[in-house]
Specification:
With 92 residues, the protein is of the alpha+beta class. Helices cover 43% and strands 29% of the residues. The chain has 2 domains: 38 residues; 51 residues, HU Protein, Chain A. Strand 1 and strand 2 form a beta hairpin.
Length: 92
């Protein structure tokens, strides 16, 4: 499902227009991105959590030359599904 299809589903379920549904979806995504960027965690119980995590510096290899290179530390988003969500998806 792409963004356009998701907006259409939101509009159908909520009875809102596609423009309002797109605005709501964009707002939710922006809020989650900004909260995580600030270093806070977003938790939707029964669904998922997202937080910012520091990946430490490490050594890697250039695949073309085999030369050892240093990969700097950086922050990455850490997304984790809840066990409830995993069980729901596994049901047939």
């Amino acid at each position: 499902m792409n963004k356009k299809e998701l907006v259409n589903k939101i509009a159908a379920v909520t009875g809102k227009s596609k423009v309002e549904s797109k605005f709501m979806l964009d707002s939710i995504v922006d809020i989650i991105e900004n909260v995580v960027k600030e270093g806070n965690e977003v938790i939707l119980p029964g669904h998922f959590s997202v937080k910012k995590e520091l990946r430490p510096a490490r050594n890697g290899r250039n695949p073309q030359t085999g030369e050892v290179i240093e990969i700097a530390e950086k922050y990455i988003p850490k997304f984790k599904f809840s066990s409830t969500f995993k069980k729901f998806i596994a049901e047939e």
